[in-house]
Amino acid sequence: QSALTQPASVSGSPGQSITISCTGTSSDVGAYNYVSWYQQHPGKAPKLMIYDVSNRPSGVSNRFSGSKSGNTASLTISGLQAEDEADYYCSSYTSSSTVVFGGGTKLTVL
Amino acid sequence: QVQLQESGPGLVKPSGTLSLTCAVSGDSISSNNWWSWVRQPPGKGLEWIGEIYHSGSTNYNPSLKSRVTISVDKSKNQFSLKLSSVTAADTAVYYCARRVRWHHDYWGQGTLVTVSS
Question: With an 8 Å Cβ cutoff, are B45 and A1 in contact?
């Protein structure tokens, strides 16, 4: 299985909004509404930010939102804050009953 | 509060077998969840290795399937990973995680395993 495709890096200024894309295929992202997003700070374990395309776990800021169109999912962070600077990974369940992650996107807050 | 804790050797020789255990607290390994292993080579992205259900059912990453075995020990509320014929490319931080429905909600802190002679 191939990793989902994410941009290597994105950046934005405090207060701005950014969007990270995650492109898969009709066998993973396009097949189910089972896309999740994870935030990872250096040296830390990943943290679940979005699940089932657009749902936020309890405790996650409503500045984080998710969506999907066809084989591409997106994570939008509004009102950027310095603490949002991290790596972000998308993930999808697949039609082969496996899980696939994206290559990761480094978010820089300018 | 669900907690997962990885343990095992931090150094494995090339061609050897990597063995890790994940101790689960705050949830039963027999709950209606899957228990996963994910790894991250230094400076690289996350790679899903595989998962197990308490019944013993498993799913593996096709690229690693021939070398991976995941097992569960219900009496100790833990699950384990074995990766055989390791090379330097298997050097990574290994995480265990709980999969609830289609996402991983709790993760261990991760343990670095280095493959070197």
Answer: no
Handedness of CA A92, A95, A97, A102 (dihedral sign): negative
Tokens of A23: 């492109």
Residue-level pLDDT at B27: 96
Give the confidence band of A1 by pLDDT, cuts at 50, 70, 90: confident
Tens digit of each residue's pLDDT (9 = 90 or more) over B38-72: 999 999 999 999 999 999 999 999 999 999 999 99
Whether B108 and chain A come into contact, CB under 8 Å, resolves to yes
Torsion of the alpha carbons at B14, B16, B22 and B28, rounded to the nearest 10: 150
- Helices then strands, counting H and E runs in chain A, come out as 0, 9
Place of tokens 């996650």: A60
Nearest of A97, A92, A98, A100 to residue A36 by alpha carbon? A92
Please name which of A73, A78, A67 lies closest in space to residue A101, comparing C-alpha atoms: A73
Q: Are A91 and A103 in contact (CB under 8 A)?
A: no
By Cβ distance, the residue of A45, A98, A103 closest to B48 is A98
- Give yes or no for A32 touching B (CB within 8 A): yes
- The mean predicted confidence, pLDDT, of chain A is 97
Give me A33's structure tokens. 């509404």
